[in-house]
DNA sequence: GTCTATAGTCGGATAGAC
DNA sequence: GTCTATCCGACTATAGAC
């Protein structure tokens, strides 16, 4: 046993360094989300993570490196949670673009998939973990940096695109048209508002947290919103 | 002229002190909105306002006092811009609660009023001034402080209440029911998303800013969303 | 590979001149 | 009433011990 310390591993098979990295990232999501980049001190970050303050420059090259690592981590987690559904829908929509016998995406199927997509997104939002992600992301929306770029490219853009494909199939319009894009944004807005206008929504609805019961309520909103998507002329023909 | 300097007035009849106060508040909306409370330095605040750094402790008792003053200022401006419409609608809804001959609020009128209310809100959001208000408010939603309290009580709660009254009149339900509250939140979410998921929306729609043309697009969304509000059983009876 | 100590910078607020 | 000068605390990152 004369060898110098090489990487040590914990019970879950993570090397010591990986463990410290992860602890820091998790603490950082919370603190950056609540206080912003400048408002988060490396002292607070390392203390909450329970690691040495110097682990930040060591592992991430500095506070900014940690910030970007947080963005990548969030994008990664979101992709893991929503990505599979999004990808599956993406494929289904793509198949519709090169229509072969029996492959056409009918409105009913598109509606079902859209509900599935939105409910998956809502399910993620409900997660308490998502509350801290949301704080981080919303800050980036206000004053986007490189971190926003990464999250947007890695997951957001794909999800919105999938939603657009489905909406296009329902209303029979071009998925790249502004009309479809607007519908997609409005649809997602109805879900996002629960996280983003968090304080106001909680008060309005008398909610303490967003849990299973509250998720049900959001599902109602989703189903109604998807049900309300109809081709423009169909709307006009209503009484 | 042996008297000591008393208050001096500028061309617009504002005393010097008032002028400095206002300059600081305007600079602070921008900087607090972008960088958060901790991220904003009193040096940056005073420099942008073009006033001395010591004006902050002098006029506002400190950085936190300036922060709260910003909240009050925003609430005040919002109230001035949206309040009249909200109040008028509030009265109309209240009249419906004590129905007398010819006073009943019919669905058609409620829809028209709801569109008016939402379009007014959207109009405020379009305003470039609102971009900075939005940044400030959204931060407060994530991590509410006393500042959120003030804005919520002074204007937000009233607007949501007005919207609820109108929705209730359309769907013929209790304005305090969760169903109506949910509809109100979802409805407002469709507008808010344009400011709140700002970076993502701009990219999705290829917009550079939210101007008159973009406002028209949002109006389309509003009219469609209000049109989609129907009593639950009416929805069921659709083909 | 991880820690303690510290250097250098920038933060907000107070004191006192004008 | 408004400015300049300055204090002291808190910040991040580096250097070097273990």
Fold topology:
Two copies of one chain form a homodimer.
Chain A: H1 16-39, H2 42-49, H3 55-60, H4 63-97, H5 107-126, H6 128-142, H7 146-171, H8 178-196, H9 198-205, H10 212-227, H11 232-236
Helix pairs in contact in A: 1-2, 1-4, 1-6, 4-5, 4-7, 5-7, 5-8, 5-10, 7-8, 8-9, 8-10
Chain B binds a DNA duplex (18 and 18 nucleotides) through residues 4-8, 16-17, 20, 41-43, 51-58, 62-63.
Brief sketch in words of this structure:
2 copies of one chain form a homodimer. Chain A is built from 11 helices and no strands.
Question: What does this protein look like?
Answer:
Chain A has about 240 residues and is an all-alpha fold. Chain A has two domains: about 15-60, Orthogonal Bundle (Arc Repressor Mutant, subunit A), CATH 1.10.10; about 70-235, Orthogonal Bundle (Tetracycline Repressor, domain 2), CATH 1.10.357. In chain A, about 75% of the residues lie in helices and about 0% in strands. Chain A is built from eleven helices and no strands. Chain A has helices at about 15-40, 40-50, 55-60, 65-95, 105-125, 130-140, 145-170, 180-195, 200-205, 210-225, 230-235. The relative contact order of chain A is 0.10. The model of chain A is unreliable at about 1-5 and about 235-239 (pLDDT under 50). The interface between A and B is large, with 53 and 52 residues. Chain B binds a DNA duplex (18 and 18 nucleotides) through α1 and α3.
């Amino acid at each position: 046993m004369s060898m110098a310390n090489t990487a040590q591993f914990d019970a879950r098979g993570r090397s010591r360094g990986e463990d410290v990295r992860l602890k820091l990232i998790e603490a950082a999501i919370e603190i950056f989300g609540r206080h912003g980049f400048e408002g988060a001190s490396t002292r607070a970050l390392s203390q909450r993570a329970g690691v040495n303050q110097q682990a930040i420059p060591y592992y991430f090259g500095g506070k900014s490196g940690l910030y970007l690592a947080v963005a990548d981590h969030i994008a990664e987690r979101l992709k893991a949670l929503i990505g599979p559904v999004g990808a599956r829908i993406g494929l289904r929509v793509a198949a519709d673009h090169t229509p072969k016998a029996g492959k056409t995406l009918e409105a009913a199927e598109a509606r079902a998939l859209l509900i599935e997509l939105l409910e998956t997104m809502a399910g993620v939002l409900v997660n308490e973990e998502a509350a801290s992600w949301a704080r981080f992301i919303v800050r980036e929306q206000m004053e986007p940096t490189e971190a926003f770029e990464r999250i947007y490219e890695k997951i957001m853009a794909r999800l919105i695109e999938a939603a657009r494909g489905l909406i296009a199939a329902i209303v029979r319009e071009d998925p790249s048209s502004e009309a479809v894009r607007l519908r997609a944004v409005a649809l997602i807005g109805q879900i996002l508002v629960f996280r983003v206008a968090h304080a106001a929504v909680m008060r309005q609805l008398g909610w303490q947290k967003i849990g299973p019961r509250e998720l049900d309520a959001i599902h109602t909103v989703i189903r109604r919103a998807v049900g309300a998507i109809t081709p423009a002329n169909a709307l006009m023909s209503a009484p």
